[in-house]
């Protein structure tokens, strides 16, 4: 009925005749009721729920009632909630205890890890200590063996054999012309270990001494006083030297008188064996007065020889003594570059006397080829050189007639023209200097040719010697083909082509070698005398005397704190520098190769200072050096490293079967006021294996700072 009425109201009162106002009234009542119901639900219900929820937790006893009396089921629910709360509290306590145990276990694990790391480090340290102990034991054993070896000499000195009598006679050669070392020299007076003592006669004690050139005698005496081989004890001397020239003209002793004076020398011993007669030349004119004197078995050293007089391997061709009492002025020597100079070649000279006159019939080339060669090629040389000069292909200067009076000369020898200064000025402008040998084939060498050679080498003009039969100074020990051109006279027509075909590099190399030869063997009286002694000493295979030790001025310095590099823990990457030496610096063994070098390498010539087998008064090899010298990183140094075996240390010695002595090396550093860089470089040397010492060459006139602290690298630092 209600639904029916409601339906009717919606249909506008159909069936009851309803009115429209009734419908409007019922709609307002419905909306008001709905709004009031929603307000009650939205306001009062949350308030009731909030009150209940806030008071249920505050009920302490079972008798408290919220909404009236509770039933038994409600009491069970409250007890269940309380049990859950107690369980939560218990679980929380257990979780806290577990967290505490976890933290305790973590701390114990950390302590154990620290102990493990400490054990590992101690194991590594123990390994290092063990390795170091092994090295110490090995080095101690090696040192013990070395000390035992020192008690057993490696080599005993040979017995010195001296003749029982001073007048002992040797088997006489057929003639003095056949004299050589094996039949005219007494080796028993020159043992290998004698040191090559040389006794020099005082010329003033003999009559011929008053005829000597004062400058030559004074220069010779000054040289003798400073030479290391000269001794005043004639009884132990190996070689006896007497100066007989250059004589002053025109007053000269007769040949018979000079011969008697020589034979009356106190140590002449009937035939003059082991004697050396020196005839120095200061001028171009030659005095070969010894040619007519019987010198027995004495050796002769001079600048002029005839073939009947010269004994190869026994006599010595020496250079003239131009700078007798004065050192050459090196500031006036021209530079070696440019290579080519104004004149391709030059020659000035005049021939006083020839073997065949230019007026005689000139033989044709065909006649000479048939075997009848002319005795003198000088006429053809003159014609050819004049043709080259007239061709104007190159600037050349040849003069065959002196403007002034020519110097005195031997027959068939080209005399020098002008003064020495004028000749040097021309040679300074010449690339090559022609030297025409005497036409006499029996004249082996003349003082004039030696003077031309001396002047050419002095100013850097490359000598061109026309005549292959000539014996240049010190020819048996100097490789003259490295500094000069020696051309046979028949090739005079090819000389111009040959000189133009030489490259600049070869010209410079020859000029440099010529300068080296001149400075080392020709320039001063000391060099000439020392070269003569070196030739004799090398021929009889006696080692050179060591260089005199000169103590360097050491700069005092203070050592600071030790360098921070740990030698055992240094990280060198893949580079193994070897173990660190734990013992004091090891001294090098004695140098024992002097005899080997003297016997094997008879002579060599280099563009640097000669060694013990070179023609030089001293050797750079000291038989007892405190340590080896080596430039760091180069592997080469002042003297052969490791005896030439190429290594260092006792490990390398063991690798070669123990035949190479153990050695260390010295670092040499050159510095110039770069103190910070120097200190850093020195610190990096700390712990370097096989290091003996460090030598710092302070290359500055200003001394290092007094407050500069030098690092302590475990080895001496010498400044």
UniProtKB/TrEMBL annotation:
Any coiled-coil ranges, and where? 81-150
Q: Which GO terms describe its cellular component?
A: endoplasmic reticulum membrane
Q: Which Pfam families match?
A: Exostosin_GT47, Glyco_transf_64
Keyword annotations from UniProtKB, A to Z: Coiled coil, Disulfide bond, Endoplasmic reticulum, Membrane, Transferase, Transmembrane, Transmembrane helix
Signal sequence span is none
Q: Name one GO molecular function term.
A: glycosyltransferase activity
Please indicate which superkingdom the organism of origin belongs to: Eukaryota
Q: Which Gene3D superfamilies match?
A: Spore Coat Polysaccharide Biosynthesis Protein SpsA, Chain A
Q: From the Swiss-Prot or TrEMBL record, state where the protein is found.
A: Endoplasmic reticulum membrane
From the record, give the transmembrane residue ranges: 31-53
Topology relative to the lipid bilayer, per the entry, is:
Single-pass type II membrane protein
Principal localisation: endoplasmic reticulum
Exostosin GT47 domain segment(s): 194-502
Q: Does the keyword Transmembrane helix apply?
A: yes
What is one process in the GO biological process aspect for this record?
A: heparan sulfate proteoglycan biosynthetic process
Q: Where is the Glycosyl transferase domain?
A: 665-719
Regarding protein family, the annotation reads: Belongs to the glycosyltransferase 47 family.
Q: What is this protein called?
A: Exostosin-like 3
């Amino acid at each position: 009925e209600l639904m029916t009425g409601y339906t009717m109201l919606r249909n506008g009162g159909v069936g009851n005749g309803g009115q429209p106002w009734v419908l409007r009234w019922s709609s307002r009542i419905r909306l008001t009721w709905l709004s009031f119901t929603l307000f009650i639900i939205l306001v009062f219900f949350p308030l009731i729920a909030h009150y209940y929820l806030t008071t249920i937790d505050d009920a302490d006893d079972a008798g408290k009632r919220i909404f009236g009396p509770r039933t038994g089921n409600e009491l069970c629910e409250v007890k269940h909630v309380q049990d859950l709360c107690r369980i939560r509290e218990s679980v929380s306590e257990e979780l806290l205890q577990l967290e505490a145990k976890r933290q305790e276990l973590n701390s114990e694990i950390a302590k154990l890890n620290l102990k493990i790391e400490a054990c590992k480090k101690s194991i590594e340290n123990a390994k290092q200590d063990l390795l170091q102990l092994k090295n110490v034991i090995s080095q101690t054993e090696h040192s013990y063996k070395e000390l035992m070896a020192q008690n057993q000499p490696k080599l005993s000195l040979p017995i010195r054999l001296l003749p029982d009598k001073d007048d002992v006679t040797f088997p006489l050669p057929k003639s003095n012309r056949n004299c050589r070392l094996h039949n005219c020299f007494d080796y028993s007076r020159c043992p290998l270990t004698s040191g090559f003592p040389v006794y020099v006669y005082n010329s003033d004690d003999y009559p011929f001494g008053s005829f000597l050139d004062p400058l030559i005698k004074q220069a010779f005496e000054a040289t003798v006083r400073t030479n290391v081989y000269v001794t005043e004890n004639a009884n132990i001397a190996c070689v006896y030297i007497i100066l007989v020239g250059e004589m002053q003209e025109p007053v000269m002793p007769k040949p018979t008188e000079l011969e008697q004076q020589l034979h009356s020398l106190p140590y002449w011993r009937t035939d003059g064996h082991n004697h050396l007669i020196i005839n120095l030349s200061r001028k171009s004119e030659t005095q070969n007065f010894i040619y007519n004197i019987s010198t027995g078995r004495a050796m002769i050293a001079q600048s002029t020889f005839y073939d009947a007089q010269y004994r190869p391997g026994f006599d010595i061709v020496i250079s003239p003594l131009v700078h007798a009492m004065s050192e050459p002025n090196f500031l006036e020597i021209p530079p070696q570059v440019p290579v080519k100079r104004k004149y391709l070649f030059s020659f000035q000279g005049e021939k006083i006397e020839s073997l065949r006159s230019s007026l005689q019939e000139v033989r044709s080339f065909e006649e000479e080829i048939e075997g009848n060669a002319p005795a003198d090629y000088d006429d053809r040389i003159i014609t050819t050189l004049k043709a080259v000069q007239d061709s104007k292909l190159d600037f050349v200067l040849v003069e065959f007639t002196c403007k002034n009076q020519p110097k005195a000369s031997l027959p068939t020898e080209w005399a020098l023209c002008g003064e020495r200064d004028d000749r040097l000025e021309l040679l300074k402008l010449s690339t090559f200097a022609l030297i025409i040998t005497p036409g006499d084939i029996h004249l082996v060498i003349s003082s004039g040719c030696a003077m031309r050679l001396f002047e050419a080498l002095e100013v850097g003009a490359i000598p061109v010697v026309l005549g292959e039969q000539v014996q240049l100074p010190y020819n048996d020990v100097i490789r003259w083909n490295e500094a000069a051109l020696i051309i046979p006279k028949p090739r005079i027509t090819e000389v111009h082509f040959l000189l133009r075909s030489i490259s600049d590099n070869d010209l410079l190399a020859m000029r440099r070698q010529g300068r080296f030869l001149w400075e080392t063997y020709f320039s001063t009286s000391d060099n000439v005398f020392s070269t003569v002694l070196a030739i004799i000493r090398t021929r009889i295979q006696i080692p050179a005397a060591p260089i005199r030790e000169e103590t360097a001025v050491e700069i005092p310095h203070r050592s600071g704190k030790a360098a921070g590099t740990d030698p055992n823990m240094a990280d060198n990457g893949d580079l193994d520098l070897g173990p660190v030496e734990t013992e004091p610096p090891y001294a090098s063994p004695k140098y024992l190769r002097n005899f080997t070098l003297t016997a094997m390498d008879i002579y060599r010539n280099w563009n640097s200072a000669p060694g013990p087998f070179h023609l030089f008064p001293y050797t750079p090899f000291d038989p007892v050096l405190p340590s080896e010298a080596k430039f760091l990183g180069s592997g080469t140094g002042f003297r052969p490293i490791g005896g030439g075996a190429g290594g260092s240390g006792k490990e390398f010695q063991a690798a070669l079967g123990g035949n190479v002595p153990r050695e260390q090396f010295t670092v040499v550093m050159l510095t110039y006021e770069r103190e910070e860089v120097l200190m850093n470089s020195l610190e990096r040397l700390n712990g370097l294996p096989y290091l003996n010492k460090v030598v710092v060459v302070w290359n500055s006139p200003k001394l290092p700072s007094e407050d500069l602290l030098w690092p302590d690298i475990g080895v001496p630092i010498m400044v």
